[in-house]
Amino acid sequence: MKNQTPISLLSRKEKIASLINEMNKGLLERNEQVKLILLAALAGEHVLLIGPPGTAKSELAKRLKSVFVEASYFERLLTRFSVPEELFGPLSIKALEEDRYKRLTSGYLPEASVAFIDEIFKANSAILNSLLTLLNEREFDNGNSRYPVPLISVVAASNELPEGEELSALYDRFMLRSFVAPVSNESFHSLLMLSDSAFYPELEVRLRLEDLKEVQKLSEKVLLPPSVIELCKAFKEHLQREDIYVSDRRWRKVIKLMKVSAFTAGMNEISNYDAWVLPHCLWNKPEELQGLKEVYERAVAINGEFSHERLTSLVSIWDKKLKTDKSQQRQKYDAKGRPLFINDKGNETIKSSGEVQKRNVEGNPVFLCGYNRDETTSKKNEYRSHQENTPIMEEVSFEFATEMLCYSESHIQGRLQDVRELKNTAQSHIDALNKQLSSAKTTFNDHIWLDNALLPQVTTSLENARTHTQQLLSKINKLEVGFSSLPKEDESKYMVSDVSEDEALEGEICE
Predict the structure, then answer these.
(1) CA end-to-end distance (rounded Å), the chain
(2) What is the pLDDT of residues 198-209, one digit of tens each?
(3) Distance of alpha carbon 428 from its chain centroid, rounded?
(4) What is the pLDDT of residue 453?
(5) Topology of domain 7-212, CATH
(6) What is the chain's alpha carbon radius of gyration, rounded to the nearest angstrom?
């Protein structure tokens, strides 16, 4: 049997991983909610659980209380008729006799470390203001004084979403939201076989208040790389398309949650994987969650400030530049500098116009025939005499004679330099994707917050991203060949610089 590490020697990361496993024991299909309420507590935030009764919402809150050493617990079900005394404690009779307004808060919400408030959106206006202050500022107004409260986190529950603008501020205070569905048909048999199990983790595994303060302080130093900023932009664009409003305050706290996720997983920089928490912070209605999860699955294939959309757009732009360069034509001149034209025989001439045989609408030549000089369209027509046909002539302008533009060496090298930089960017992205693919399994196994069930989807997303980028790299290689093959001017001759596309082009007539 392998030697096990003594509990007292476990690292913070190992303790949290152990607590996640312990909290899941005796519960079915609640791993996501377990992680959300524990991460929220570590970050000093609150969680809202939406779902029907009897889905273990209060049990999750009780288990969160047991995660901490000497944590006090408060639980209350609100109704439309609930009064402030039910949450904040009764008024002190003695204080009233002394003309003071003071509540006896012992055993009530202002003295709790962890609280579970069921049917939170039944809170009326008499309760709402004090509740908002307590949730956000961790302070409680008792009489004419404001006191700090020991609150770690509130787990709230509701069977329905809030209705009415007065509850929107309360709804926004819950950074993490999760829909708790009944156990699925696949787990129904296991549900029937479950036995009651209490959650009492070993004292050495539990977290102390000092642990929370340390996590929140040190996690502030976790770095925010460009890749995560781009990821947040991708989420924001999705939210705008779907008309989902997210406050600026919520975005700031989203970064805080990701930093805590990264820090407790043993990293000093947020990775795109830490965005697992974003979908649970950004939805207003449960049906919006799936779309946000899909954004995350795509986002894990983004490397740095680079995205497929950006590369695809750049390749398209450079393809147009190449086609433009290849299609550039100039007026052709003879040795004496006279402009040349193409006559009706297809030959070059210095004449800009000339007489040519007239043709009808079908393109056939037109002649004069017979003594009546009637027009006819073919010698095969029946003539009114044996006189030879006479062509009908007309004066036309000839088209300019053109030839392909030749480019200076500096123009071609400038094009190649830009394309090669694009090529290096694409190759770097492919290398990064290969690295992510090779380390994805290790990352998921080592990261305490990630759900291994998501690994196949992430792997597929990375593989698709790599294939797409390889296809774009192939197009970039063709662009490089195309620009290298552009005709070059003879630099010993004069330079022509009056043709431009998106920049000044220097060139001369090819001979």
Answers:
(1) 86
(2) 788 888 899 998
(3) 20
(4) 84
(5) Rossmann fold (3.40.50)
(6) 38
* CA 363 – CA 357 distance, rounded (Å): 11
pLDDT at 503: 43
What single-letter DSSP state applies at residue 400? E
Ranges of residues in the chain with a pLDDT under 50 are 1-8, 304, 371-375, 377-387, 494-509, 511
Separation between Cα atoms, residue 178 and residue 43, nearest integer Å: 17
SS (H, E, C) 128-167: HHHHHHHHHHCEEEECCEEEECCCCEEEEEECCCCCCHHH
**Residues 392, 397, 403, 408, Cα dihedral to 10°:** 180
Q: Is residue 198 classed as helix, strand or coil in its secondary structure?
A: coil
As a 3-state breakdown, the chain gives helix, strand, coil percent values, each rounded to 5, of 50, 15, 35
Tokens representing residue 187 in the block: 């787990």
- How would you write 425-457 as a 3-class SS string? HHHHHHHHHHHHHHHHHHHHHHCCCCCHHHHHH
- The DSSP code for 332 is -
For 47, residues 6+ apart whose C-beta sits below 8 A from its C-beta are: 33, 36, 37, 40, 153, 154, 155, 156, 174, 175, 176, 177, 178
Sequence-separated (6 or more) residues with CB below 8 Å from residue 93: none
Run of H or E residues at 387: none
Can you tell me which residue has the tokens 């048999």?
Answer: 189
User: Are 292 and 278 in contact, with CB atoms under 8 Å apart?
Assistant: yes
Domain boundaries, the chain: 7-212, 222-299, 308-328+405-509, 353-397
What single letter denotes the amino acid at residue 153? S
Length of the chain: 511
Residue 65, φ and ψ in degrees, nearest 5: -60, -40
Q: Do residues 311 and 488 touch, judged by C-beta distance below 8 A? A: no
Residue 151, both tokens: 């609150």
Got the DSSP string for 17-59? HHHHHHHHTT-SS-HHHHHHHHHHHHHT--EEEES-SSSSHHH
Helix axes 57-66, 31-43, angle to 10 degrees: 50
- Kind of pairing between the strands at 393-397 and 353-357: antiparallel
pLDDT score of 505:
39
| Residue 393: CB atoms within 10 Å | 12
Give the separation between CA 486 and CA 158, rounded to whole angstroms.
Answer: 68
**Percent of residues, the chain, with pLDDT higher than 90:** 54
Are the beta carbons of 12 and 208 closer than 8 angstroms?
A: no
How far is 277 from 284, CA to CA, in rounded Å?
Answer: 15
Task: Return the exposure string of 325-351: e unless at least 16 CB atoms fall within 10 Å of the residue's CB, then b.
Answer: beebebebeeeeeeebbebeeeeebee
CA–CA dist 259, 39 (Å, integer)? 11
What's the token pair of residue 65?
Answer: 């209380």
Helices 31-43 and 12-24: angle between axes, nearest 10 degrees: 140
